[in-house]
Amino acid sequence: MPKTAARRAGRRGPRRHTRRDLAVLCVLLGLPILLDLVLVWGPTMASIGLSFTDWDGVGDIEWAGLGNYTHLFTDYPQFWPAVRNNLLWLAALGLLAAPFGLLLAALVDRGVRFSRFYQSTLYMPVVLSLAVVGFITQLILSRDQGALNALLGSERDPVDWLGDPDLNIWMILLAACWRHTGYVMILYLAGLKSVDPTLKEAAAVDGATERQTFFRVVLPALRPVNVIVGVITVIEALRAFDIVYAVNKGRNGLELLSVLVTDNIVGEASRIGFGSAIAVVLLLVSLGFIVTYLVQELRGEERR
Amino acid sequence: MVRSWGDGPGESAHRPVRAVPRRSVLRSVAAGAGAVALPSLLAACGNGPGDGVTLGSNASDAVPKRAYADAIAAYEKKSKKPVKVNTVNHENFQENINRYLQGTPDDVFTWFAGYRMQYFARKGLLADISDLWRKFDGFSDAVKKQSTGEDGKQYFVPYYYYPWAVFHRKGVFRTRGYEIPRTFDQYRALARQMQKDGLTPFAFGDKEGWPAMGTFDYLDMRANGYDFHIALMRGEKSWTSPQVRQVFDLWRSLLPYHQKGANGRTWQEAAQSLQGKKAGMAVLGLQHPGQQFTAENRADLDLFPFPEIDPAFGQEAVEAPMDGFLMAKKARHREAARDLLAFLATPQAELAYLKRDPNNVAANGVAGTQTYDALQKKAVRLVSGARQIAQFMDRDTRPDFASTVLIQALQQFIGDPDDIDGLVNSIERQKARIFAAD
């Protein structure tokens, strides 16, 4: 008898949850998991499945095997330019806009004159939606009626900033960077404010130059911000869409993977299978970054 | 608080206190879910039969929207029946048409004639109105053909059309002594002359992707005939054929006379340069320059039919996109919808519209032309003299082919007109893939 009682006690000891607790736990955990499955994994799997089919959104779904992918890689003239543009976007935001944002943040943080003014001016573009940025771009860069050509006085042979497929992507990247710089600057500014000033003092006592202090002491202390900036930059580059759509619907030199997905699936075209194949490519690219990031983070966790 | 399924007395002491907030949280979650579901339930109730026919309209621009409102008001006054108009942004309406028709569409909705209508008829999403058509009066055979599905039944109530032609300013032609060209050689010679006189011969913008389609269609119909053009649009002819190459060759010979940088220019900007006398001519639809010209300049706007290329085909085909109405298969107020459609097919209904929006022409031939201005009268003559009527590239072919292949291909041609070979091969490969889909 005492033995059973002991066993019972032993079993009940660590199990602190009553059935009612379990029910609540199940609901509270189950709901998010269910939502995650329905809203994230469901559509993802559906996209992957649909990418192997032909479907116009009305009739029957027909199996197409790898047909959509071979067509995409070989015969779809917009695909490779779109991949190239997405990578350019990533490079421009990551290599130009982000470092420039850091520079501006460091300058503002050092307390140049009118730093409040610079801060708000540089941050302004961030509150504008990219669609508005696209519209502003048009006002400035339109070939016949734009402000830039009027300023340059090139009436005779105006530069077609937005219509020339070799030129327009750079103009748009400039506009996208203009916006991203402000974003990055604000993030670093918040980070710089939280860096312990005694670190800098210690470095100064040790005889470090200002440059060394910044790169060897301050920047490593900003690691969490660096990670956030990296993640945001990748996200912004992969989801880029609205600015080119506002300018010319993402055609003629401004192709992006997100635009191709929209063109094929959302519009009257309804090439849902084919559009899904493009979406899967975008998913794979995103997964590459997500996996790298997670691996880094988990390793960092272990080391800590 | 009685708890029938409690476990141990040791833990239950604090339980009731915690259970209350937890429960209320759950309850509020449930209430929240209800709040999300409720509006859609209400919406489902609100559309029950008995509260009048609904009309889905894509006329979101100010002028057509007011014009439709006038026409519907005329119907309500005559029939004493209410009509609920749901206006949706023009582009969104088109983009969502598939889901719209499969969901809960309005009883009657605005759409386009030709293949773009037949496609939905084939999918079984439209209601057959052949019996209504038997009572219709005043539509030409060409118009009836554009309202007919591939199964020989009528689905479409034509409302108005706007022919494409070469637009120009009378004043400019008069002062410079230009003659209306009838053949392609005269056309090109005129362009050369304009260039010499310091005018840009052709105002041209293709930023939206569709305006250049009009020029392609006309070149193809003049050089290869209407039947070839339609067969090409239906995917039955090859894009690598010598006929299509010839079209691009002809176009390339004209491109030096077109405004440069067309891919970065909207059609509005192009039409404005025609109005500003910077450009001499423009291939556009009746709606387009009409909307951009001020009232006093409108009288100076004129058109001539696209010139002849192959004498075998002359100038017999005209491109005249037609807008009108369809009834959804899922319509819930069938009789009311048919009554409305019958009214919309009458000349009064069309004239009520055109009074507000004079940049189109009534599809019904009986509609009196006395209210028309000179340009509209000319447009009527152009279409009534036509042997065949084409709708427009993006209405005569599959929507997916037009929007994901042809728009890009024409823009590529405008940017780089010398690689015709690579262009037609690329189009043909994509066409084979798209038309194989079903």
The proportion of residues in beta strands of chain A is: under 5%
The succession of helices and strands of chain A, N to C, reads: HHEEHHHHHHHHHHHH
Structural class of chain A: mainly alpha
What is the CATH homology-level superfamily of the largest domain in chain B? Periplasmic binding protein-like II
Provide a short characterization of the protein structure:
Chain A has 304 residues and is an all-alpha fold. Chain A has helices at 2-12, 19-50, 67-75, 79-109, 115-127, 130-141, 147-152, 168-194, 197-205, 210-221, 223-239, 242-248, 257-265, 272-303, and strands spanning 53-54, 62-63. With 438 residues, chain B is an alpha/beta fold.
Characterization of the model:
The complex is a heterodimer of chains A (304) and B (438). Chain A has 304 residues and is mainly alpha-helical. Chain A folds into two domains: 2-50, no CATH class; 79-254, MetI-like fold (Orthogonal Bundle). In chain A, 75% of the residues lie in helices and 1% in strands. Chain A is built from 14 helices and two strands. A two-stranded antiparallel ribbon of chain A has the order 1-2. In chain A, strand 1 (53-54) and strand 2 (62-63) form a beta hairpin. The longest helix of chain A is centred in the N-terminal third of the chain and has 32 residues, at 19-50. Chain A is flat, with a radius of gyration of 26 Å. Residues 1-6 of chain A have low confidence and may be disordered. Chain B has 438 residues and is an alpha/beta fold. Chain B has two domains: 53-162 and 321-390, 3-Layer(aba) Sandwich (D-Maltodextrin-Binding Protein, domain 2); 164-319 and 398-435, 3-Layer(aba) Sandwich (D-Maltodextrin-Binding Protein, domain 2), CATH 3.40.190. In chain B, 53% of the residues lie in helices and 13% in strands. Chain B has helices spanning 9-12, 15-46, 62-79, 90-95, 97-102, 115-122, 130-135, 141-146, 170-176, 184-196, 211-233, 242-254, 267-275, 287-292, 295-298, 334-344, 347-356, 374-384, 393-396, 399-415, 420-435, and strands at 53-57, 83-87, 108-112, 156-161, 164-169, 200-202, 279-285, 301-304, 317-319, 322-327, 361-362, 388-390. A six-stranded mixed β-sheet of chain B has the order 2-1-3-10-4-11. A four-stranded mixed β-sheet of chain B has the order 6-7-5-8. In chain B, strand 1 (53-57), helix 3 (62-79) and strand 2 (83-87) form a beta-alpha-beta unit. In chain B, helix 11 (211-233) runs antiparallel to helix 12. The radius of gyration of chain B is 27 Å and the shape is globular. Mean pLDDT of chain B is 85; it is low at 1-49. The interface between A and B is large, with 44 and 46 residues.
